[in-house]
Structure prediction request, 272 residues.
Amino acid sequence: MKIQEVNAKSSLVKSKLSQFTVNPYMGCGHGCRYCYASMIMQRFHHKNENWGDFVDVRINTPRNLEKELKNKNEVRIYMSSMTDCYQPIEKKYEVTRKALKVILFYEKTLFPKKHSITMQTKSSLVLRDLDILKELSKVEVGLTITTLDEHYASIFEPGASLPSERLKALEMLNKTGIKTYAFFGPVLPGISDSFEKMKEIIREIYNAGTKSIIIDKLNYFGNLPRLKNIARELNLYNQFFFTLNEDYRNELRQKLSIIQKEHRDIYFDIVF
Prediction:
């Protein structure tokens, strides 16, 4: 793993996902094979390196936020859109933790600003920051679950926490009273897209106490050579290629529609 410490010009960046996004790192040690961020970011940076083999640590993120939030009214912040803010290197650098402390500081001032924070991760490391998360007035934490099969998870998400660890993290967050959601995405063709597998994943998320689930299909298959290679190695190329077909998307929606009827107390956000 190639690690570089860098300074970002700005840390609070306007985003379509939320009002602003904060990316404490460039690159990601989780190295997820289906990640769209590599397709976007590596057009400009680290062009000749493998996704998952490098991380730039934006060490001045907390300091930037101190300045950038100072004159802001209450805003919505998403962490993170182009990286995972709790990837393994965060255990050492604590850039995300320090950024949360800055946000909490502005909430505790004489004229408090209660910024809305949405976080998404594949790491149980998020539990380290329970002490801060409990203090924030408006925070929601999401864990990504793509499969319950640890073998497939190790292939597609080699640096991330195991699915069982992520479910336990959701459970702990819920027991602590922190609002949670799960991102079931991408649904992996031939692995987690059968009616039985989807039902099982949604049931395990529900059993962890989470009742809000965002679901997305696999995207950008045609643009990610490494994903094509893995699909071939697993003899799943035809299934992965079929995700480009509208019939596949309709079939997924039909399966999810049946599952929704069995879980009327879960909020489903199907984004494809």
Q: What stands out?
A: The radius of gyration is 19 Å. The chain has two domains: 1-141, 145-272.
